[in-house]
Amino acid sequence: MRFWEREFPQLSPAKKGGQRLYSPQDIELIFKIKHLVQEKGFTLEGARKELSQFYGKKTSSSEVLQGLEEIKVELKKIKETLSS
To answer: Which long-range contacts (CB under 8 A, 24 or more apart) does 18-25 make?
Structure first.
């Protein structure tokens, strides 16, 4: 698992107390990597390229928070519009 974490930047489980905590999305990604490499015969480089089309560049938590704040503002506007 640690090898794949180094090879695939999209796979980065949370770490707490020295233990890796895999989210459901991490598990799904692990199965996709396994399928591409072991069942379809992709090289690691080929699998990285294939996954980058779907997962793209990892965003920082501050970018995610900013996006969520923007969504929150939009939802409040929609709520106000529906209430009036």
So the answer is: none
CB within 8 A of 47, min separation 6: which ones? 8, 33, 36, 37
Q: What is the pTM of this model?
A: 0.58
Can you name the residues that pair with 16 across neighbouring β-strands?
Answer: 19
24-67 residue pLDDT tens: 988 998 999 999 999 999 999 999 888 887 776 555 667 677 88
Quick one: tokens of 69? 């704040």
- Cα 41 to the center of its chain, rounded Å: 23
Q: How far apart are CA 63 and CA 42, in angstroms?
A: 32
* Other beta carbons less than 10 A from residue 11's beta carbon: 20
